[in-house]
């Protein structure tokens, strides 16, 4: 991994299993970081044993540290230390939220793997080996300690056969001990509520009246919208829902707000591969379950996580490009999170300003169309000397909503296009930019005040950068690792979905096409917010977009107050990732608010980057391009047993 360097000091907070603890600690150490482990209740003893084993192996003192105590508060206090460079957490959503909110504003990058709260589908198609599938259900669903929560989805044509086999296998099964006695009250409430909604029970025996034991239970006949399906209770309770067609089964699999894993059962290889590809999840097991290996990535989606663990792909969360500056730490600002972005920033109009002298009004690009702001308001675009160059829309929440709705409709079709087709569309974008190179150079010069030669050079680099991304569309397609278990496994990169990008002020055109090219080359849609200071090059670029082969609605460009639009993007559940260049307060707000709904964040404080010579957009260094590419994809692992 040339031209990559370790973060430095990494805090690993974990309350899942020993496997997930090792999946974070060992890669972090192997990449050259020092690690501080904050274990939860279930991983305290294994973490201390791990530290003892490392001491016996001769690891230098201080490289691996284990600090026990209250997990959320202790991890947050450690992350607030200015010498800590990265925090990663694995566990439940409630603790993850507490950690994120406590660390927000301290300038520490964070990642979360919320697998303990994830709900995963166990899908049985009518072409499955039903006996093997039911065996898998029994093995998986009724253990005392499970990595994930499960929902059983069965095709209607074999529902009766599956239920009969479940009754036969569950007969005489012993009660399962609960993790805590308080789980019993929660289970009783959920089961009673499910019965009131029409569910029927399959139980191995009547439940004891009190105590920390409960019999294996299946809740049959539930609707997908039932609370026990969306959020199953702890303990040996398994919700069961049915579906008619294979396509409906895949839809149910994607119905959950979580996106950790799925187990699908079918003897039809074509159906297995099509379903695995269509499920928007991190791992898919075909005719098996819970198979894991460090050679393959585990990558949660949506509410299940925003980081990648395992495989070569998982190593990069503990690295940064050597050319990417390590910025100084900061302390939190006093922010009213509820009011952040509610008031748009004000522009001062120069005295003696004559509205008739403004040469042009620039519309924004929303849903593939040139539009004014939904509010009808506009703002001034100012030259470096303070003169008014033009007016542009003052976009807001409704403009973001319209743009995201259009992007969500277009993105699945764009993602399914072949890499060669996406490549040709991006090449057409570069060709159209080349045809308008002089107009773009004039726009950059007028807006930023740099010389025309420097502006021409930025346009030339922008054309080259788009061509680079067009060429890279089909160059990274994952692979077939060789894990020690029997069977085959695939690891493939996929598009994240709809991204929100708040653009930097430096190199306004080059930074735009660099980020845009990375996002759309990998199959994403993007909603872009130009710099408040220099929006003109982005608005001129809209004509280039419209003349290209990029589908309408795939890219939207919305001008307006940065904080206001950032808040709208952060609160939209469809947005999967936000790339942000802006204020320290904006970075803090995003870290605080984007834990629910969970988003992938890539944050940059422009004030600090200006002091420390931030990202060099003119550089074509491979590590900087690879960093962009890795920010634009999510990984899926597919397991297919052969023995």
Written account of the structure:
- The protein has 643 residues and is an alpha/beta fold.
- 38% of the residues lie in helices and 22% in strands.
- A nine-stranded mixed beta sheet has the order 10-12-13-8-7-15-16-31-25, sandwiched between helices. Strands 4-3-2-5-6 form a five-stranded parallel beta sheet, sandwiched between helices. Strands 28-27-26-29-30 form a five-stranded parallel beta sheet, with helices on both faces.
- The longest helix has 21 residues, at 452-472.
- The chain starts with a strand and ends with a strand.
Main beta sheet strand tally, sense and closure: 9 strands, mixed
Strand order of the largest sheet: 10-12-13-8-7-15-16-31-25
**Poorly predicted segments:** 346-350
Class of secondary structure makeup:
alpha/beta
Distance between the termini: 35 Å
Number of helices: 21
Question: What proportion of the residues form beta strands (DSSP E)?
Answer: 15-25%
Shape: globular
What is the mean predicted local confidence, pLDDT?
Answer: 88
Helix fraction by DSSP (H/I, runs of at least 4): 25-40%
Q: Write down how many β-strands occur, each being a DSSP E stretch of 2 or more residues.
A: 31
Radius of gyration: 26 Å
List keywords for this structure.
five-stranded parallel β-sheet, globular, 38% helix, 21 helices, nine-stranded mixed β-sheet, alpha/beta, 643 residues
């Amino acid at each position: 991994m040339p031209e990559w360097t370790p973060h430095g000091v990494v805090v690993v907070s974990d309350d899942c299993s020993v496997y997930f603890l090792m999946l974070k600690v060992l890669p972090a150490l192997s990449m050259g970081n020092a690690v501080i482990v904050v274990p939860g209740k279930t991983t305290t003893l294994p973490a201390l044993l791990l530290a003892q084993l490392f001491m016996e192996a001769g690891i230098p003192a201080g490289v691996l540290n284990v600090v026990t105590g209250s997990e959320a508060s202790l991890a947050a206090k450690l992350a607030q230390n200015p010498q800590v460079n990265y925090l990663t957490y694995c566990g439940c959503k409630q603790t993850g939220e507490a950690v994120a909110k406590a660390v927000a504003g301290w300038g520490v990058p964070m990642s979360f793997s919320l697998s303990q709260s994830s709900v995963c589908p166990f899908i049985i198609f009518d072409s499955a080996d039903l006996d093997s599938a039911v065996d898998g259900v029994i093995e998986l669903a009724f253990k005392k300690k499970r990595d994930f929560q499960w929902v059983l989805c069965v095709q209607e044509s074999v529902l009766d056969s599956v239920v009969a086999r479940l009754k036969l296998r569950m007969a005489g099964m012993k009660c399962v001990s609960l993790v805590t006695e308080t789980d019993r009250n929660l289970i009783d409430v959920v089961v009673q509520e499910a019965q009131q909604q029409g569910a029927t029970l399959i139980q191995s025996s009547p439940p004891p009246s009190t105590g920390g034991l409960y019999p294996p239970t299946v809740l049959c006949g539930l609707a997908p919208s039932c609370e026990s399906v969306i959020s199953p209770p702890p303990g040996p309770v398994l919700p069961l829902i049915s579906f008619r067609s294979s396509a409906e089964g895949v839809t149910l699999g994607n119905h959950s707000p979580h996106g950790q894993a799925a187990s699908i059962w079918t003897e039809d290889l074509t159906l297995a591969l099509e379903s695995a590809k269509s499920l928007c999840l991190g791992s898919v097991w075909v005719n098996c379950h819970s198979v894991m290996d460090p050679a393959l990535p585990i990558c949660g989606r949506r509410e299940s996580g925003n980081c990648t663990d395992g495989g070569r792909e998982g190593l990069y969360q503990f690295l940064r490009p050597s050319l990417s500056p390590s910025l100084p730490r900061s302390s939190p600002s006093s922010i009213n999170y509820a009011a952040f972005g509610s008031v748009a920033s004000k522009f001062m109009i120069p005295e003696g300003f004559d509205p008739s002298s403004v040469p042009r009004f620039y519309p924004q690009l929303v849903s593939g169309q040139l539009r004014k702001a939904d509010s009808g308001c506009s703002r001034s675009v100012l030259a470096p000397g303070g003169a008014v160059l033009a007016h542009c829309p003052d976009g807001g929440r409704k403009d973001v909503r319209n743009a995201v709705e259009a992007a969500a409709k277009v993105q699945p079709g764009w993602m399914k296009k072949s890499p060669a087709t996406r490549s040709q569309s991006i090449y057409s974008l570069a060709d159209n930019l080349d045809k308008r190179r002089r107009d773009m150079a004039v726009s950059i010069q007028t807006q930023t005040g740099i010389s025309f030669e420097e502006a021409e050079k930025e346009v030339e680099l922008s054309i080259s950068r788009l061509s680079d991304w067009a060429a890279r569309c089909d160059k990274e397609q994952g692979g077939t690792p060789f894990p020690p278990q029997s069977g085959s496994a695939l690891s493939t990169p996929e598009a994240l979905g709809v991204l929100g990008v708040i653009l930097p002020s430096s190199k306004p055109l080059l930074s735009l096409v660099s980020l845009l090219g990375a996002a759309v080359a990998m199959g994403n849609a993007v909603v872009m917010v130009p710099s408040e200071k220099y929006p003109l090059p982005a608005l001129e670029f809209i004509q280039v977009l419209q003349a290209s082969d990029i589908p309408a609605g795939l890219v939207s460009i919305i001008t307006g107050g940065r904080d206001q639009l950032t808040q709208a993007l952060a609160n939209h559940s469809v947005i999967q990732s936000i790339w942000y260049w802006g204020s320290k307060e904006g970075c803090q707000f995003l870290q605080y608010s984007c834990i629910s709904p969970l988003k992938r964040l890539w944050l940059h404080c422009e004030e600090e980057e200006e002091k420390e010579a931030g990202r060099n957009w003119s550089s074509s260094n491979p590590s900087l391009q690879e960093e962009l590419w890795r920010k634009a994809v999510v990984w899926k692992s597919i397991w297919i047993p052969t023995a």
